[in-house]
Amino acid sequence: MSLEPRDLATDGERDQAIAALRHHTAAGLLSLDDFAEGVERVLVAETRGDLVAVTSNLPAIPEPSAPPREFPRRWAVGVLSGERVRGPWRLEDHLHAVACLGSVEVDLCDALVVGDEATIYVVAIFGGVEVQVPEGIPVELSGFAVMGSKQHKVRRADVISGMPRVRVRVFALFGGVTVRTRKLRKGLRGRRKQE
Prior knowledge:
By secondary structure, the protein is α/β, with parallel strands linked by helices. It has helices spanning 11-26, 32-44, 48-55, 188-194; strands spanning 75-79, 82-85, 89-91, 94-100, 103-107, 111-113, 117-125, 128-134, 139-146, 149-153, 165-173, 176-182.
């Protein structure tokens, strides 16, 4: 069945849909994973109906005076132990991740990131810290390691415009820090390549 030209999605309508997704992500109502999946669906949408299906179920943005849904996470500490920060959690402007003779795992894939950027300050002393990010997020890794390592394993070619930027600032002493990409949960990129 052929589509009428009036039914086809335009580039401007796609931009509006992505802007709506970005607005909800900046408000802390969508996780980075959900944002990336939504953008992928917008990019492969052929009709206006496809775009409506992406944006019609977006949660309502509360009034500015409304209290936050939950307190933001500020610290992740593994001292002679391990800590994992994963699942739905709120990241506002920064997080401190400290591993001393222990380990910390920070998974941003389901995090609600408020604003256009966030910074993760990492200290690894005889310990290890791993930061996992969803495909498409721009990540900057800086700092230094003394008798240790810092590794940037994020796929730069997959950056999606409009994603919040994450900056990872590292101090590692006999420790290791790794920032790595985790693929989208529903394999939208794979489906897009096949089409």
